[in-house]
Amino acid sequence: MKGIKHIESGNFFLMAGPCVVESRDNVMRIAETVSSITDKLKIPYIFKASYRKANRSRIDSFAGIGDEKALKILGEVNERFGLPIVTDIHSAPEAAMAAEYVDILQIPAFLCRQTDLLIAAAQTGRFVNIKKGQFVSPDSMKFAAQKVVDSGNTNVILTDRGTMFGYHDLIVDFRAIPTMRAFGFPVVVDVTHSLQQPNQTTGVTGGRPDMIETIARAAIATGADGLFMETHFNPAEALSDGANMLNIKYLEGLLERLVAIRQVVKNF
Predict the structure, then answer these.
(1) Domains in the chain with CATH codes
(2) H-helix or E-strand containing 28?
């Protein structure tokens, strides 16, 4: 992938950043901080932020600062820090628009079966990161990936973000990692979204950020190629998904421990 650093290190790769583009200042501060940490630890890093959030519980939930404005900020992150960028798309017409600014088009979990969306993403030539639906088995993700491949694009990443068991919780089944890796594509575990507690009576999604390290450690130990996590300087004030975000002050220590686990895994 163009621009990604530290591939030779043998580390897992990291997709991380705020849930959504809240402001230019917030995005730049997070990108600079995470880039510095990952350079120090030689972790391949892809900056993540959604330019718009289409899947909100309530109509008054924050959805973004405007598509073009947010995408230009993401493009600026790429130019300033030399980082590949991943962002969500929600409809087929968005694919070409977002592809002008980012390197990876992410298919949200609840849209992983949308054929027209997968085809449109594939036809841009960008990498396509397909999140496994909370309602989809790991085995079934081969069909989502095949839609991209059959559209002429083999640059596929598969991401697990938990499976719904009951109305208000998600469970990570780590059997999904070897199952999806067998399809021949890199597999990522979305640590923070796996810890969401959706469908709360308030209309605001809850979460278990205290379990972030547990899920991340298990993901690396069971062979995940990459990790996805959302991080913020003040999760309590984040405009989206703050309840399950990692406070950025804990990121370096967490990554140091995960790199150590990765080294042990590589020896096996």
Answers:
(1) 7-266 (3.20.20.70)
(2) helix 24-41
Residues of the chain with pLDDT under 70: 56-57, 196-207
Counting Cα atoms < 13 Å in the Cβ hemisphere of 58 gives 11
In contact, 114 and 35? CB cutoff 8 Å: no
Positive or negative, the Cα torsion across 18, 92, 100, 155?
positive
Would strands 206-207 and 196-197 be described as parallel, antiparallel, or unpaired?
Answer: antiparallel
**DSSP annotation of 173:** -
251-266 and 24-41 helices cross at what angle (nearest 10)?
40
Instruction: Kindly tell me the burial class for residue 218, based on how many C-beta atoms sit within 10 Å of its own C-beta (0-12, 13-18, 19 or more).
Output: middle
Contact 258, 43 (CB under 8 A): no
Give the C-alpha separation, 97 to 226, whole Å.
Answer: 26
Q: pLDDT digit string (tens) for 168-181?
A: 788 999 999 999 99
Q: Are strands 187-190 and 206-207 parallel, antiparallel or unpaired?
A: unpaired
Q: Which helix (H) or strand (E) holds 128?
A: strand 127-131
C-alpha distance from residue 75 to each of 126, 167, 258, 265 (Å): 15, 38, 29, 35
What are 96's two structure tokens? Answer: 């070409």
Q: What's the pTM value of the predicted model, to 2 decimals?
A: 0.93
Who's near 29: CB < 8 A, 6+ residues apart?
A: 233
Beta bridge partners of 174: none
